[in-house]
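Recap from last week: sequence in, structure out.
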Amino acid sequence: MNTGESAHRTLGTRPASVGIEPRAGADIASALTVILADMFALYIKTKNFHWHVSGPHFRDYHLLLDEQSEQIFAATDAIAERVRKIGGTTLRSIGHIARLQRVADNDEGMCRPRTCLRSFWKIIGNWLSISEGHTRFVMRAAMSPGRA
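Predicted structure tokens:
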């Protein structure tokens, strides 16, 4: 075993054999990392609404937004692990997220339930539209004729 192989084994950085050409794997990892940054931004934005929603149905909306944020957060680990599995690196810091995210920040304070929810669903809809192109790119790269 040479020094490079030893370092890969020790650090666990060698990609698993997943049948994807290295260039396609790098492209897929990059696209998924951008999606991951967006998901962290969505998570924080959802928590913001969760923490600051007000009004007569506060508890229902508070619980709904908490559940949504938990589901968004749970998905982040699966995406990051897939990026690592194909040999990519993923997010390293809040600054890294900020540089990659396509979801606009929202620093609003308290918000009325309808305003919060309308804004939340608009943000989700916009993000899904933006991410659709990245998803298509990932699928094309994964299914490219140059696949191993």
